[in-house]
Design goal:
This protein is an alpha+beta fold. The protein has helices spanning 10-48, 51-59; strands at residues 64-66, 86-88, 94-99, 112-117, 123-128, 144-146. A hairpin with a 5-residue loop joins strand 4 (112-117) and strand 5.
Length: 147
């Protein structure tokens, strides 16, 4: 008699499920790290784009201006900043700072990104993971320091 196989055996199905489980256990944390890193990079890029507007204001002799004057558009990854909040770059030195919140991942909530300008025109980036629950140094974009 010819007995053709009509499906998978239970052990074959269990092996496939085990392999999928192992792949998922590895992939999910990697994906979460990737999304956190990209969210930090996006918030940094959005803040960094305002440096040109700061330089333009300083060139025109304005050392006190608002976020609205810089053309700041609220990000869904950061805590709300009122566009009328004043910034002071007296003597050319000052800082732009945002706190991650809003729709950012749980592991990066409350991290602070700060771009500081010295009076000689040099910009520096510092990111403080602060009370962010799962903050990792690998989330820090190139050119920034982790504090």
């Amino acid at each position: 008699m010819n007995h053709a196989q009509k499906g998978f055996t239970l052990i074959e199905l269990m092996i496939v499920v085990a392999i999928i489980g192992i792949l998922a256990a590895i992939a999910i944390p990697q994906y979460q790290d990737y999304t956190a890193r990209t969210q930090v990079n996006r918030a940094y890029s959005e803040l960094s784009s305002l440096r040109t507007a700061v330089e333009e204001n300083l060139t025109r002799g304005n050392t006190s201006f608002t976020w609205g004057d810089l053309g700041h558009v609220q990000s869904n990854l950061t805590d709300a900043i009122t566009s009328t909040t004043s910034l002071n770059f007296g003597g050319g030195a000052g800082a732009l700072s945002v706190t991650l919140g809003g729709n950012s991942g749980a592991g990066i909530q409350d991290a602070v990104i700060q771009l500081s300008r010295t009076s000689d025109g040099t910009w520096a980036c510092r990111i403080d993971g602060g009370s962010a629950s799962d903050w990792k140094a690998t989330y820090v974009p190139a050119g920034c320091t982790n504090s």
